[in-house]
Amino acid sequence: MMFDHSPTDVACSHSTAGIACSLANAGAMKADILVVDDTPENMRILCTLLNHQGHTVRKAINGEMALTAAKAAVPDLILLDIMMPNMSGYEVCQQLKADPLTASVPVIFLSALNETFDKVSAFKAGGADYISKPYNFEEVLARVNHHLALRLALKEIHQLNAELEQRVETRTRELEFANAKLLEVALYDPLTRLANRVLFMQKLEEALRATHKDSMRQLAVLFLDCDRFKVINDSLGHSVGDHLLLAITQRLQHCLPADATLARFGGDEFAILLPQIDQVEQAIAVTNSILRQIEPPFQIDTHEIFVSVSIGVVIGNGTYERAEHLMRDADTAMYRAKSTSKGRYCLFEIAMYAAALQRLELETALRRAIALEEFELYYQPIIDLQGGSISGFEALIRWRHPQKGSIPPSIFIPIAEETGLIVPIGNWVLEQACHQLCEWQQRFSHNLSMSVNVSARQFMHPGLIEQIDRLLATTSIAPSNLKLEITESAIMDNPHVAAITLQQLRDRQIQLSIDDFGTGYSSLSYLHSFPVNILKIDRSFIQNIDSQSNNLGLVPVIINIAKTMNMNVIAEGIETKIQLDQIKKLGCEFGQGYLFSKPLNASETIQLLSNKPRW
Ligand code: C2E
Ligand code: CA
Ligand code: CA
């Protein structure tokens, strides 16, 4: 630094106020000044004057010397005589200005009054000012100080600018970094660092646009879901779950071509985009390679874990308008893969979309069906096989869809189960059946019983017992005449909760039947520990019975077991006299089936009861 700041200068740097401050303090500055003059007398006067001010003064007696001195150490100011031999002051000034090193040094020309001084040439050559000889000392000092202050101010401005630029650069870098971080959070999955749903959809849209431009072009989306991942997470912990997801990610990456995008959609869902394929077979090949890769067990910590995945594959071309539609279809295909057999893939077909849509329509209609009173109960008599009379009924629900007509329970009960609508629907059935029984008991016989099907979800619902208590209080039916039919899976899916409900039912003397017996878990040891009153032998066993008694299959065994466990047996689906005779011979107490009667509506049932039929 050429300028030696006085201590007071420090406080006012780095601001515009600082520049004004420099101007005011210029007089106190010690500067390096180069004086160029070939007249010794002039030189001496100036040097003495400037030395007195505390400046360092260097002397040059011609142009060449001046240039050499200025380049050797760049001065803060140059006082330059115009008239010199060999090289004029103008020329010296021009050369100084042409050199970037010295270009910014202010040059004040010294001119004698008798010399022909050309102000225009002086400023053209790059001079900052001029001083006339003979010197007026105050004027010389004023101009020198003025230009020194200007130079200092300029330097400070340059420095401030440089600092500002530096700061802007740093901030820009920080911002870029922050932006990159934000982008990463917005577009990538934090665990696997794979693309997330947002980024995947962007890429899919891009690929889809390409198919719109080129009708021959195809893409594929693979939607992948791990089967029973929740079980792994719940039993081994989330840390193991996370490591497993990372290991799965690695294996998936092995199977993919370079242009594929692998994304994690959260949880155990992954999506793969093959942006350009020539044939369906290409997508299937990738799918098969994924299935193969996933097959060997994963070693996570000390656990050996087998993972199976279900993959939905959809081929997209220009006929798809929107990326979401591709995802919807990939999802439908994935669910189809999951429901048919675990650990496989399914290629989307348009028929699946129709089926999914139809299901959705049904679900929507089902939500309104209770309020619109579209349900009706039918009753199928259960026959006491010894006496041949009606001992009770099984209530069977019917749905009259205003447009589609009668929809069988096998279609809508599973949907009601999945959506939870089974709870209000089941409540309605129970209510209706109990009131009907109450009415028929009063009119025909107090021994009549009513069997009501209770689905697993309804059975687990805490409101069930409450509702039963209310119904028993408001109707006069004896609890032992109410029979609930549940399947084995309703108990086995959650034995602990089931045990509590079963005990509460037993406390109330309500009868419990195991429906479709023989088709489910048939865990007899388990069954033994639950308070079950009745086994209903599944229709499929009865239907196999023909005149040959060797076709009885498991039926005799089931009946024997029931007897030793002190349970009653009902044979479902008796359609022929032969079946009835065989069943009776085996000592089965109750029967139900088309041979006696199909399920009837309420008024038909009243007619049947009035006829007092015997079989
Ligand atoms: P499920 O409990 O096994 O009911 C017996 C089914 O067998 C009834 O079909 C009945 O009509 C039919 N069936 C009776 N006898 C014969 C026969 O001799 N031959 C043949 N082929 N079939 C016979 P449905 O009414 O279509 O009910 C089907 C299933 O829907 C029921 O099977 C039950 O699981 C469910 N379901 C019906 N009503 C309800 C209900 O109110 N709540 C619940 N949760 N499920 C119900
Ligand atoms: Ca049943
Ligand atoms: Ca059944």
CATH architecture of the largest domain: Alpha-Beta Barrel
Radius of gyration: 49 Å
Q: Per the principal axes of the C-alpha atoms, what is the gross shape?
A: rod-shaped
Look at the helices and sheets and give the structural class.
alpha/beta
- Report the β-strand fraction as a percent range: 15-25%
Instruction: Count the DSSP helices.
Output: 24
The overall pLDDT average reads: 90
Helical percentage: 40-55%
Detailed description of the structure:
The chain is an alpha/beta fold and 615 residues long. The protein folds into 3 domains: 7-158, 3-Layer(aba) Sandwich (Rossmann fold); 197-348, 2-Layer Sandwich (Alpha-Beta Plaits), CATH 3.30.70.270; 360-611, Alpha-Beta Barrel (TIM Barrel), CATH 3.20.20. The protein has 24 helices and 21 strands. It has an 8-stranded mixed β-barrel with strand order 13-14-16-17-18-19-20-21, surrounded by 4 helices. A 5-stranded parallel β-sheet has the order 2-1-3-4-5, sandwiched between helices. α12 (323-340) links the parallel β11 (309-316) and β12 (345-347). α4 (63-72) runs parallel beside α5. It is rod-shaped and about 155 Å long. One calcium ion binds next to loops.
